[in-house]
Amino acid sequence: MTRTLSVIIPCYNERATIRTLVDAVLNCGVNPIEIVVVDDGSTDGTRDVLGSEIAPLVSKIVYHEKNQGKGAALRTGFKHATGDYVIVQDADLEYDPRELPLLMQPLIDGKADVVFGSRFMGGAPHRVLYYWHSLGNQFLTTLSNMFTNLNLTDMECCYKMFRREVIQEIALEENRFGFEPEVTAKIARRQLRIYEVGVSYSGRTYAEGKKIGWRDGFRAIYAILKYNIWHRRG
C-alpha cells in the first residue's frame, strides 16, 4: 500500500533558502508527498518568493500575519496535514530531505508510531560548529530522558516523523523552540513505539541566519519540567 508523507515546513525569513529546500523535498525520493509551508510572518521578502515561485510546487501555503514562533507554525501545519505520516522540515537547509525515506521505513514496516532523527548516532556527516551548542543539546536530551525514561540521543533534532493521527491528537502549546521537549514528553506519556534514525547535519552559523539562542535553551529546560511534572496533559 502506498503511503503519503506530509512535510510541514515552518518558514520565517528564509528567502535565500526556501526555493532550494522545496526543490530538495520534491526530489527526495518519496512519492506521493504533500508539502505544507507555514510562513510565520516573514518580513525579508520570503512571502514574495512563496507567492511567485513556491505556490505552484506545493500543496498548501498558510500565512501567519505576525511572527508567533516555530511551535505555533507547526501547530498550524499539523492541522492542514492529510498524509499517512507527518514530518517537520526546517527551511534552512540544515537537514537533508534525501534522508526522509530512511526515517519513513520504521513506520512503513509497522514497527514505529514516531521516528526521531539523531545527529549523534550512526555515521552520517555533520558540520563541525559550536561546542557549547552541542553540549547544551546533550544536556537537554539527558534531562528530558531522565523524566520521560526514554533513551533518545538527540531530543532536539528537527526531524521528527509521526503517524498523522498521533500528532493530530496531541494538544500542543509551545510557540517557539519549546516544541521539542513538549512533544517528546507527551509522546512518552502515551507509551508510543519510538525509533531513532541517524541523520546528517549541516548547521548554520549565526551570520548565516541561525535563530536559536541561549534563551531558547532556558525555555527548553522550563518546558521539560512543565510537561513532565507540572502540566501533564495533552
UniProtKB/TrEMBL annotation:
<dbReference type="InterPro" id="IPR001173">
    <property type="entry name" value="Glyco_trans_2-like"/>
</dbReference>
<protein>
    <submittedName>
        <fullName>Glycosyl transferase</fullName>
    </submittedName>
</protein>
<feature type="domain" description="Glycosyltransferase 2-like">
    <location>
        <begin position="6"/>
        <end position="170"/>
    </location>
</feature>
<keyword id="KW-0808">Transferase</keyword>
<dbReference type="InterPro" id="IPR029044">
    <property type="entry name" value="Nucleotide-diphossugar_trans"/>
</dbReference>
<dbReference type="GO" id="GO:0016740">
    <property type="term" value="F:transferase activity"/>
</dbReference>
<dbReference type="Pfam" id="PF00535">
    <property type="entry name" value="Glycos_transf_2"/>
</dbReference>
<dbReference type="InterPro" id="IPR050256">
    <property type="entry name" value="Glycosyltransferase_2"/>
</dbReference>
